Amino acid sequence: MSIEQEVEILRKIPLFANIESAKLKLMCFASERITFKEGQSLCEQGDIGDAAYIIIEGTADVIVTRDTPLVVAQVGKNDIVGEIAILVDIPRTATVTATSELTALKITKDLFFQMVTDFPEMGVEIMRVLAQRLEATTADLMKARAGAGN
Amino acid sequence: MEPNIFKYIWHHSKREQISILLMVLLSMPFYFIALDVPKRIINRGIMGDGFLGPGSVQPFLAIELPFGEMLTGQPVALFDGFMMEQQTLLLALSFAFLVLVFVNGGFKFVINTNKGRLGERMLRRLRYELSDRILRFPIMQVRKLKQAEMATMIKDEVEPLGGFIGDAFIAPAFLGGQALTAMAFIMVQSIWLGLVAAGVVLGQAFLIPKLRKPILRLNRQRVLEARAFAGRIGEVIEGAVEVHAHDTSNFERADMSSRLGRIFDIRYEVFRRKFFVKFLNNFLAQLTPFAFYAGGGLLALYGYLDIGALVAVIAAYKDLPGPIKELIDWDQQRLDIQIKYEQVVDQFQPSEILDPSVQDPAHDAGPALTGEIVVSALGLLDDTENILVDSVSFTVKVDDHVAIIGPGGSGKEYLGMMLARLVTPTTGSVKIGGRDLAELPQAVTGRRLSYVGQDAYLFPLSVRENLIYGLKHRPLDAPAREGAAAARHAAWVAESLRAANSTLDSEAEWVDYGAAGARGPEDLHGKITEVLSLVELEEDVYRFGLKGTIDPDARPEACEAVLSARAALPARLAADDAENLVIRFDPEHYNGNATLAENLLFGTPTKPEYGAGALAENPLVTEVLTETGLIERMLDMGLNIARTMVEIFADLPPGHPFFDQFSFIDADDLPSFGTLVTKIDKHGKETLDADEALALRRLPFDYVEARHRLGLIDQDVEAKVVEARKLIGERLAERDPDAVAFYRPDTYNAAASLQDNILFGRLAYGRAQAEEIVGRAVTEVLDRLGLRVTVIEVGLDYEVGVGGKRLSPAQRQKIGLGRALLKRPEILIVNDALAVLDGASQTRLLQRVLEYRADQGVIWTLQRPDSADRFDRVLVMHEGRIVEQGSFADLNKPGSALSGIMAAE
């Protein structure tokens, strides 16, 4: 798969939908594309986060371990994982394990911040996505509270 | 050291000085004759003076007594000479002239060489003596030294001494002799005029040095001021942060200006006095002719002196100022040199210096240390009388494990150094088995004791050499030398003795294998490995080994073994289902995980003109690229790369880190590539000139398809590259066979590292954990083939760099500890040496060392008490005193100092 194809995939991700193709190309060029075999982990809960992954192909389980491992979500093509640990300096909050052969773009912390600094429109775009998520989470919380109240 | 340079030179070189002086005297007659011969050639040989006509003869080689006419009134002939006609005489005189030129040249050559050799010999002696003193400086003194200053003193400041030493006695003797002769001649002519001349010369000799004395004092001041100024510059640089942070730069400027002002004043004063001395000197020198003209003239007028004698006196006086002036110059040089010498020697006279007998190579390690270590009333003060250690007394057994625990500044590190006899106590004593430590030579303390400090120094050698450094006490087996080599060595020994240098042979076998418990080099390797694993360095050295290279000629069996590891690796990877993690080099296929340059050469370049950056200009490669038609494709690839780079990097400011990390093109060159791309888009590739085409063609050599993913390498390119690769290989074999070490599946590549030889390929880009998985597989294969030892051996050759800078601080300390363990001392003193390690590693290592030395003594100073329970005895120090001692169990009670420290942790 060449860079051109990777750029096409990124464009379909809402986070990058409004960003110029030259900048997406730069991001692809500067980041590593990594293939994981089924069962290999993209990141481990508790580790220091140094990169986020954009899944290009394949699926993975998001697993949180309290006492026993619990699959909290499934992610797949066009999803971004691991971005929280690079935005705020906290250890990985979950383990992400590939459930099929999986290909992802590895966006290192340095690269991510460089891109946001150099292209503020990308920062704005990320804020928009985070705000949407927050809104969704808040709505979920309200729903959960309402459910608990009943 | 001798404070007076003349005494120093005379003491060490009188015989040579005298022999050179004799040679100078011997050369004098020939020199004077040589001055006389040209006059004779012209007057008699050519002009024919004294020849009355054809057939007339004159003597050749007639010898008269020097000054004979002057002394007796008529010439005194010693030899009447050969009688010759004019032509014969001319030729004879001319040949005599030639012979004299040769003889005088020969004298000059021999005398100068001898003077030079004498100077160098003395310089060697002085430098050796200074270096020797550095080796004998007590540690506390060494710590105060400015190493740069010491090094320049030995290297540069004594250098001018060498030139002077050869002339130190000869010049004054020679010049003085010349002056005295002229003086004597004048005296003979007229005693009064002679007395006048002598009076003036004596006046000069008395007055000038007196006037020069203040100049000397000023010069000394100047050197000190200049040194202080240099010191201030150093302080300003070191304290740059403070200067800027507190806005004190103008204060510093004022200080510098005032110092420079003082230096200026001193120098100006020196000049004024120097030129006044010169003026006076000249005046006095001209005073004598004045006396001769006026006084001598009057004497002649009144008939007390005949005119001929006056003329002779004036002529003789002409010869006087030359030597005297040179003598005065020599005297000036002497003073300079004396000051330099004093200032250097002064720095090498510490208040205390070890006696040479302490380091005498004739000593041996003596009997084993047994019994008790008795420390009584041990105290240490620093120069300012601060108490560092205060009357410490304790008794332990030589083979006890002792912990000395205390916070920084408790004096525990000084106690450790005193126990290792590195620092001499101010009061009290350390006795081991009844023997006073202060009386023991270093041959005992340096072999039976071992010391590791907090900052173990590594020499810029290999890991192995650093580990065995502690085994090199004295030469054991001299190398076998025969014929010329033996003669050279004998000459070196003789010359070293003349300069009082050490004659210990640096090429001998110095490693004391027995001290490490080994029988020889092979056996020692086992001991080194044992120590490496003990201090947890084995894995590190193993990794160095994988990155290292071996010489196939020296170790063919190791290369064979590496090749079998190469063969075994694919099966091992397949067992992990990981065979696609390494893309092997295949002569018939393009390797998408390697650069295009590597695919073309298919080997490791050993000459710079075949390096990746130089291939575009390389004639052989260009020739092949043209023949295979790749050159066109590479131009297209270069254009493609340039276009992509211009597109995606255009918005980034120059100097952005991305350029260094990712771009094929420098930020500075990007605009010119932008113009190039536009030009091609408008007018086509055909309009490019040679330089522009070259700039584009250079780009794809570093391109790696799997990494950069621009889709430039299609099947056609792959096939062409494989074809070009074969042609390059063939032509290189013909024209430049050593330029590239080729990748051949069944051959060891001497230019590549062990790891590259085993992988024989590239790690696949973009495979998760490829490095770890492959690394594990390589290690397993190597272990299975019994190659671990070989890899560690290669790793031991790893160069640690200046001060061990290529290693981490923890690795450095571990090597320091390993070095101390390898020589198997009876008492190991560890002065908080592992403080740079993390807590867990420190505890683990401490425990391992204590287990390893179960029956041998260990004294370990520690800041943290957590491991104290592993020692037989614990001493707790506070403010220079021992506040508690006993077993851990005894001390670990409520209210004890130890429990206090433990609670504070």
Give your account of this protein's structure:
The complex is a heterodimer of chains A (150) and B (905). Chain A is an alpha+beta fold. Chain A has one domain (3-149): Sandwich (Jelly Rolls), CATH 2.60.120. Chain A has helices spanning 3-11, 21-30, 83-87, 109-118, 120-149, and strands at 32-36, 41-43, 51-57, 60-65, 69-75, 80-81, 95-98, 102-108. In chain A, the strands form two sheets. Chain A has a four-stranded antiparallel β-sheet with strand order 1-8-3-6. A four-stranded antiparallel β-sheet of chain A has the order 2-7-4-5, with no helix packed on it. In chain A, a hairpin with a 3-residue loop joins strand 4 (60-65) and strand 5. In chain A, helix 1 (3-11) packs across helix 2 (21-30) and helix 4 (109-118) packs across helix 5. Chain A is globular and about 50 Å long. With 905 residues, chain B is α+β, with helices and mostly antiparallel strands. Among the domains of chain B are: 1-168; 372-470 and 801-904, 3-Layer(aba) Sandwich (Rossmann fold), CATH 3.40.50; 552-585 and 743-787, no CATH class; 595-741, no CATH class. In chain B, 58% of the residues lie in helices and 10% in strands. In chain B, the strands form seven sheets. A six-stranded mixed β-sheet of chain B has the order 10-17-18-7-19-20, sandwiched between helices. Chain B has a four-stranded antiparallel β-sheet with strand order 6-5-8-9, covered by helices on one side. Chain B has a two-stranded antiparallel ribbon with strand order 1-4. In chain B, strand 8 and strand 9 form a beta hairpin. In chain B, helix 7 (170-189) runs antiparallel to helix 8. The longest helix of chain B has 53 residues, at 249-301. Chain B is extended and about 125 Å long. The two termini of chain B are 52 Å apart.
